[in-house]
Amino acid sequence: MDAAKDVLAIPAKDILAKPYVSHYLKWEYWPYYLAALFVAALLLLLVFLVLRRRTGFAPGRLNIRKHVPGGLLDKQEHMPRSSLKKAWKRFLAQIPRNFRRAIQTYRAFIVMGEAGSGKSVLIDNFTDWRGQANRFYPSYTVDPLLQIYLGTRALVMEIPAPLLNNTFRQARIALLKLWKPLFEKREATVVVALNGPALLHELPENARKCAQVVRGKINILSNVQAGPVKVHIALTHMD
């Protein structure tokens, strides 16, 4: 009985720990341990990538968003980088194949301006894109991010207000993907449309912001073109 009591008085960890630890720490078991760790790390990485894709979470960056009606800010930040290039491809797809190379010889214009600045009126007055559409050379005006007008000897890209005011990195990359293949070897003229009567009542802060975002888009184009970018200002609604 005394011997049994002495055995029971010894802690279980002193009886079991050393034999089991020395047994499972043998070298032949380590490949299994490393394989288990690799599988666990792979599963954690897969879960992280799925969560990042769904929520937009990235390490080292707080996922803070401003509350904007309609989620406009969220849509701008998550603008697909190839969205503008795809719009250009859809424009080309509806034009006869033998006519696509001729477009490379057309004068290129990029029209920018805020909402209500008169961009569409300006394009209507100085291009005959509707007549070209009647001759089976249609323009592409259904995409809210980019409208492309085909005139007799002019190719016009209209940058709408949402894209003009988009200052996220995705928008910059999307514009580079669109403009680099098109204007790396030829020039494009920028036309900034301004509502003349509205300028009289415009707040200085808003006018400054408009000038800054326009300058940002011109800077992107200047990184693509070899020569300087020609910029024209058109005052609309002056009648």
Count of DSSP E strands? 5
Give the biggest sheet: 5 strands, mixed
- N/C terminus separation: 115 Å
Query: Any idea what the radius of gyration is?
Result: 31 Å
In N-to-C order, the SSE pattern is HHHHHEHHEEHHEHHE
Number of helices: 11
Strands ordered across the widest β-sheet = 2-3-1-4-5
- Average the pLDDT over all residues and give the rounded result: 81
Helix-strand makeup class: alpha/beta
Q: Show unreliable segments.
A: 1-10, 56-73
Q: Please report which band the strand proportion falls in: under 5%, 5-15%, 15-25%, 25-35%, 35-45% or over 45%.
A: 5-15%
**Principal-axes shape call:** elongated
The percent range for helix content is 40-55%
General description of the model:
- This protein has eleven helices and five strands.
- It has 239 residues and is an alpha/beta fold.
- A hairpin with a 3-residue loop joins strand 2 (147-150) and strand 3.
- It starts with a helix and ends with a strand.
- Mean pLDDT is 81; it is low at 1-10 and 56-73.
Name some characteristics of this structure.
disordered N terminus; 5 strands; elongated; alpha/beta; 239 residues
Short description:
This protein is of the alpha/beta class. The protein is 51% helix and 13% strand.
